[in-house]
Amino acid sequence: MNRVLAVTVPAAPDVDLYQMRDYVKESLEQGVLVVGAGVQWDLLELPELGGIWVQGTGGPGEASTPMTPSETNLEGKAAFTGCGAKEKRRIYERLRNYRDRHGLGSLEPLADAAEQKLTVTELRDALLGRKLPMDTWRAIGAALDRLE
User: Fold this and answer.
1) Is the Cβ–Cβ distance between 107 and 118 less than 8 Å?
2) Is residue 127 classed exposed, middle or buried when 0-12, 13-18 and 19+ CB atoms within 10 A define those classes?
3) Is-above-0.70 flag for pTM?
4) Per-residue model confidence as pLDDT tens digits over 67-123
5) Where are the alpha helices (DSSP H) in 32-133?
6) Helix (H, G, I), strand (E, B), or coil: what is residue 7?
């Protein structure tokens, strides 16, 4: 049996479930989860699920988006291979250090410093060690240069 945190977000047009999922995952990595009014949570004991599903509000054209278990790795141990692996690893370490120093709200100012070349979601993906284009890694490095 696995413990699973189920977070229920009130239906609202401005709620981005992917951002909420990322926020919850990052908060749990930091050891603190702060939720707003109307957000409910429950700790469930469930059998192995094999991944995460983000479920929409049931509107037309909305479907659940499965993520493979490799995409849900929360250990922060990114394995970079191939062309540019050393550069990606260096930028990844700088990004993790920046995040550790500046905390949970630090990705928005970093995205702003990238002059519209990066989104907060791309920065979260980078922190999780997901595969990103080399141009994205270089944009992260340049944004870090501006803020450090």
Assistant:
1) no
2) buried
3) no
4) 444 444 434 457 787 778 899 999 999 999 999 898 878 899 999 999 888 999 899
5) 85-102, 107-113, 120-127
6) strand
